[in-house]
Design goal:
The chain has one domain. Helix content is 0%, strand content 45%. It has no helices and 4 strands. A hairpin with a 7-residue loop joins strand 1 and strand 2.
């Protein structure tokens, strides 16, 4: 998956109780949280602003 995402997206694995999620920057303010459903099959579980997504 990381090979198809631009570096500016900063794919990050979440920590703590959300360790099964990954966060990707859509732009300077918005994020999407992704969860793997099956091998090579991802589902967006949340989309929102930087603050609303718990990143600051």
């Amino acid at each position: 998956m990381a090979t198809g995402i631009p570096r500016s997206a900063r794919l990050e694995k979440m920590k703590g109780d959300k360790a099964d999620l990954f966060s990707i920057r859509l732009n300077d303010n918005f994020r999407v949280h992704l969860q793997m459903v099956q091998a090579d099959n991802w589902e967006a579980v949340a989309v929102g602003s930087h603050k609303a997504m718990g990143h600051g």
